[in-house]
User: Which sequence fits this backbone?
């Protein structure tokens, strides 16, 4: 490799480090893709269906299809077959239908938490569904919108959703600016909290805010998240109401053309493209099986669709011509649970005479599919994980397609078996990943369930701990061995505890290395705990919850927030000579904190620019001294962070206490 | 082994894709990475294992389109103020890299893509060709021209 290539590689690595990822990115991606549809689409496209599907055989009738139970208790009973309730049932009067709406949590046989509902249209049979909390659980510090009973008929209605258990207030902001607090239904044993919001016919919710006991606000949710994709299109016909509280409506899009959408409880369940071609042309129309609803649109010649999974009796869907003259037959069947395609199955279309027009077979997807993971060496059985689903957990080194280098992978836990790892982490993380990487497997049973985090360590790591958000530290087991390509660590912690960080000690290093796993509460926190300390030049240092410190000027937050691992102090973040200060800068000002005893901090730039800042003891007992001041013009213009920058700390007597020259991290 | 789920793909590749978009010159790398995942979500791929390659391709295409759009916009209004660095971590973008990164920034977009994919992602010529949607020969041409241009730019800076 030439010198230029080596420099280019180093420059790209360094530049790449400056691009951070928004902790809410997953939520934002979810918002760009309507949650209900991906489950259905992904189901057929990529995911092992067994992970999502819970099959409950029920009686079906013909026509557009619905379950045969006309009694809400019977629907409840059918839904709860092979499930156990998790917490109390919430029964609220739905003002739109004048019938009760039941919401509750349940767990399936593997302990996977689900949210369930039974509702009843004013002119129809009750219907119900359960789905997993896979999406909801990633909304840390916030919650979800689950549905609305609002319909085209002008009447009072109800919106409802879920929030994390640490949320203490859910507030709806209406489009006219009014703020209405939702009712929270919290119960022992429930994995999340159910919120309900009674609204009058004219009310429209702009967004829902989630706030925890510390006043910290999670990510807002908008009712638009229920109709994310259809709200971008223009309706081109009246909504068609079907049994099972299903409505179907076509929309037009400038680029994608026409689509038919299926809705239930105000929520998009999925859509069919009428004009755009699928990337993999297929004679079989896409068939969706989300939340128990099976639906599709086929050309007019397909009058009937049959499908079967495993050895179950075929299910028949009768087509009905779309009322919008789109040349399609619509097929909809409401069931109480998704189909389980694990044992394989088939779908076939027939014309009016019963002649088969098309058929597609889906091969079985056994849970022990052939593994592409190439193990090297013997697996390590993790002690104390016999109680995991598919336990005990075993860790193995090996390689797998699409991933470079050696991986450390785990089998055992929910979602994997003794052959197939469910989770892997690189042994030597590549530059974008930094030095530390970890992965985890989980089990929902025994309650409250557990995570097992694991990773590969480096030879000079002395210890690793998992730090919970409440400051508790759980030491990881660190295993070394001459037969192991790298030391291996693991730590088990309960599912209902929130992980704040991993910390590890490295031989020869003064400071503990911190790998935060917290939300960006520090940066998002807008409620300082005190009036702050004002510096000359107008900067003010504020302390926020959990030892978070930030600076403001003219009421505006300055870049840079500092926070130690949970339970720690700011003083844990610095030590001489390794890192005697932490700082940031913005528009001609620099600010930060340094070691006790330091009365003055000097900065000298390579080209001779120079600045000094006096320090003051922090007023919060964090064991540091704060500073803020102007920086030289060169730094203002070109940025403070130049190689060759030299920082010096002086005592009150003018003695040099420490010097520090930041170095580019080595790899 | 089971193919990774969407959530697993997201967890493993979101941040690297943000960085890829940033290195390609995107003004909002996060937006581009999120859009790439959103597009992946709504498509059925011929091969589930092609997801990562597909994501990289989308990031390249979206960044290219966005840069084209920005160039048009800038013809009509002045550049926005430069993004402020927010912590001492930015020290890693050292002076010695600045000239090189500035020169990289001035390269034609295809040449820049070839270099970033080769020297940051360490992709093979074949893989780069797949991501960029060009032939392997083209990749070689783009990369060698880009390196020559970088070398020339740095020499001129030194003079």
Assistant:
């Amino acid at each position: 490799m030439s010198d230029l290539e080596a420099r280019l590689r180093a420059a790209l690595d360094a530049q790449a480090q400056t691009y951070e990822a928004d902790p809410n990115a997953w939520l934002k991606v979810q918002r760009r893709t309507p949650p209900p549809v991906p489950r259905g689409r992904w189901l057929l496209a990529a995911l092992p269906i067994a992970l999502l599907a819970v099959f409950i055989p029920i009686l079906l009738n013909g026509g557009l299809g619905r379950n045969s139970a006309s009694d809400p208790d019977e629907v409840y009973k059918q839904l709860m077959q092979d499930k156990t309730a998790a917490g109390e049932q919430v029964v609220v009067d739905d003002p739109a239908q004048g019938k009760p709406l039941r919401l509750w949590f349940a767990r399936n046989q593997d302990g996977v938490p689900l949210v369930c509902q039974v509702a009843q249209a004013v002119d129809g049979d009750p219907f119900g569904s359960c789905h997993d909390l896979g999406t909801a659980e990633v909304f840390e510090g916030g919650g979800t919108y689950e549905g609305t009973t609002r319909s085209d008929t002008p009447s009072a209605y109800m919106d409802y959703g879920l929030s994390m258990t640490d949320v203490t207030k859910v507030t709806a902001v209406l489009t006219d600016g009014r703020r209405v607090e939702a009712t929270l239904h919290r119960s022992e044993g429930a994995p999340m909290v159910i919120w309900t919001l009674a609204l009058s016919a004219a009310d429209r919710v702009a967004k829902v805010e989630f706030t925890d006991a510390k006043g910290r606000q999670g990510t807002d949710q908008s009712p638009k998240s229920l109709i994310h994709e259809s709200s971008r299109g223009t309706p081109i016909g009246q909504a068609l109401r079907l049994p099972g509280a299903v409505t179907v409506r076509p929309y037009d899009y400038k680029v994608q053309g026409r689509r038919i959408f299926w809705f239930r409880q105000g929520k998009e369940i999925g859509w069919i493209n009428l004009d755009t071609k699928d990337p993999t042309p297929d004679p079989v129309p896409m068939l969706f099986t989300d939340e128990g609803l099976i639906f599709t649109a086929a050309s007019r010649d397909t009058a009937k669709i049959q499908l079967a999974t495993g050895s179950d009796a075929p299910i028949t869907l009768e087509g009905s011509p779309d009322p919008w003259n789109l040349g399609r037959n619509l097929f909809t069947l409401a069931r109480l649970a998704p189909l389980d395609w694990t044992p394989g199955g088939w779908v076939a279309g027939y014309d009016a005479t019963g002649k088969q027009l098309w058929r597609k077979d889906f091969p079985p997807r056994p849970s022990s599919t052939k593994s592409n993971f190439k193990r090297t060496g013997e697996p390590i059985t993790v002690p104390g994980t016999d109680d995991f689903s598919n336990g005990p957990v075993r860790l193995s080194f090996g390689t797998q397609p699409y991933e470079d280098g050696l991986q450390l992978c785990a089998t055992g836990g929910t979602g994997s078996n003794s052959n197939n790892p469910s989770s892997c982490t690189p042994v030597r993380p590549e530059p974008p990943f930094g030095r530390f990487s970890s992965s985890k497997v989980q089990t929902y049973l025994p309650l409250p369930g557990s995570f097992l985090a694991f990773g590969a360590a480096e030879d000079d790591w002395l210890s690793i701990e998992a730090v919970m958000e409440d400051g508790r530290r759980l030491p990881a087991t660190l295993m070394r061995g001459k037969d192991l390509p790298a030391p291996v660590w693991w730590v088990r912690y309960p599912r209902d505890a929130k992980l704040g960080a991993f910390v590890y000690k490295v031989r020869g290093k003064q400071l503990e290395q911190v790998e935060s796993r917290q939300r960006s509460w520090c940066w998002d926190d807008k409620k300082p705990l005190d009036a702050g300390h004002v510096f000359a030049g107008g900067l003010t240092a504020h302390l926020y919850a959990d030892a978070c410190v930030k600076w403001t000027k003219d009421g505006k937050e300055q870049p840079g927030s500092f926070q130690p691992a949970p339970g720690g102090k700011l003083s844990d973040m610095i030590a001489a000579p390794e890192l005697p200060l932490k700082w940031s800068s913005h528009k001609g000002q620099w600010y930060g904190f340094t070691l006790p005893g330091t009365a003055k901090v000097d900065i000298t730039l390579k080209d001779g620019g120079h600045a000094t800042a006096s320090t003051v003891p922090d007023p919060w007992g964090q064991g540091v001294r704060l500073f803020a001041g102007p920086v030289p013009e060169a730094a203002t213009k070109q940025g403070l962070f130049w190689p060759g920058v030299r920082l010096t700390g002086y005592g009150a007597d003018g003695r040099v206490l420490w010097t520090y020259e930041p170095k580019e991290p080595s790899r | 082994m089971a193919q990774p789920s969407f959530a697993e793909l997201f967890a493993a590749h979101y941040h690297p894709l943000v960085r890829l978009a940033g290195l390609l010159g995107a003004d909002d790398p996060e937006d581009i990475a999120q859009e790439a995942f959103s597009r992946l979500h709504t498509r059925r791929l011929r091969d589930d294992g092609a997801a990562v390659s597909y994501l990289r391709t989308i990031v390249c295409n979206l960044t290219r389109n966005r840069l084209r759009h920005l160039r048009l916009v800038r013809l009509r209004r002045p550049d926005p103020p430069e993004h402020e660095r927010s912590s001492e971590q930015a020290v890693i973008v050292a002076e010695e890299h600045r000239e090189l990164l500035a020169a990289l920034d001035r390269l034609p977009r295809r040449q820049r893509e070839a270099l970033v994919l080769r020297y940051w992602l360490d992709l093979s010529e074949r893989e780069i060709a797949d991501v960029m949607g060009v032939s392997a020969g083209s990749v070689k041409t783009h990369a060698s021209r880009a390196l020559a241009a970088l070398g020339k730019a740095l020499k001129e800076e030194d003079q």
About this structure: The helical segments of chain B are 6-23, 29-41, 51-74, 95-106, 109-120, 125-132, 136-158. Chain B touches chain A through 59 residues (CB under 8 Å).
